[in-house]
User: Fold this.
Amino acid sequence: MSTLKGKDILHGNQFTKKEIEAILKVASQFEKELKQRGSIPLLKGRILATLFFEPSTRTRLSFETAMQRLGGGVIGMGSVEGSSVAKGETLIDTIQTVSQYADVIVLRHPRTGSAREAADATAIPIINAGDGAGQHPTQALLDIYTIRKELGTLKNLTISLVGDLKNGRTVHALVEVLSLFQAKLYFVSPESLRMPGEITSTLREKGIEVIETEDMLEAGRMSDLIYMTRIQKERFTDLSEYEKVKGSFVIDQTFLDQVKKKITILHPLPRVDEIHPEIDSYPGAAYFRQVKNGVYVRMALLAMIFGKR
Assistant:
């Protein structure tokens, strides 16, 4: 029986190494099975609700695809403007309402901590698809799955995380998972967008080697993989501050020529200008393969939450 049965998925630090390995194993099985047949009807009759209070392309569509590949159904709120939220309904009331219709809820909300509030308000599982600048645990899982597929291992890796590390919920969750595999980490960002101190100090307390720098080239030369992120304009209250840091780090062919041969590049997307389109044809540019892996990993999570794998 899955140890994830009935559980909420809220934070990157909630998983044990054994659980991560189990999720990756199930995701790999689903990837192989989907190549042989288009669906795996384990969740027939189950309903997934997607509640997205912030924009989403990959997360929302991959969850909906995952549920339908598993034979389940999907309902969605549509736009915030077209729901009762526009009339002033609270998040908790929305969650309690939607839980009457669905068996699991995927929630994205601009307020850090909102996923925990939602989980406390209902008995059905809540999956955090991003709570402001907080966490994005399912992205971390698909990232780990991609890293292992691309590099063949999760052991003894040196990884650079680049960009907006202050507001980047994807990197906040990813480093929690990477810490289980003792990766060496470079945090590359402008001074104003450094990884939150509590995350960095916790990693170091766990014995993880963390190097903070503004030198992406030096970090890239030492790394097996670069995890690139965009500078998040929507998190700035003062756009003049955004203008100071936008375009701080860019991967282009000139950069690639100077770093470690065969380095792998990931990005949670969307990108703005931090990876030049000329890099898309580079064999180590894995960000669109990373997107596809999201379906397999989210299928695994959904199946395991319902005790089916």
Remarks:
- The beta strands are 47-52, 73-76, 104-109, 126-131, 158-162, 184-188, 210-213, 225-228, 264-266.
- The mean pLDDT is 93.
